[in-house]
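Request:
Um, any thoughts?
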Amino acid sequence: MVSTYRNGKSDVWVANLQSRNQIIPRGICIGQAEPLNEGHLCVISDTSGGLDDQQKTLESQMNCSLMMSPELSEKQRNKLSELLRKFSGLFTKTEKLTAAKTNGKHKIYTGDHAPINQRAYRVSPT
């Protein structure tokens, strides 16, 4: 795993692949960070396989103008268009609205403290 390390902290995503609950106690060490040795990097130079041609076709069909603010300069529009086409695989290709599924089960272990029961409310962004 490669992660960004700033100010002595790094974000680490952990997945529980077991069928039983796992509790990670506060302060437990779940990994070790080491500097990346560039000698361990490998580059794949063979790009044959045909996927690039399909990707370029999809990228050229993508209408980026719908995602751009009319306030952008021509140079900014070109840069943004290039960026959106480069990462077009991140966007949905269907016209259907895709709503986030919120039916996942989870528990928050609060130790000896009572659970917090409070109605949700909106908070001003300022």
About this structure: The helical segments are 51-61, 74-86. The longest helix spans residues 74-86. The chain has two helices and no strands. The two ends are 36 Å apart (CA to CA).
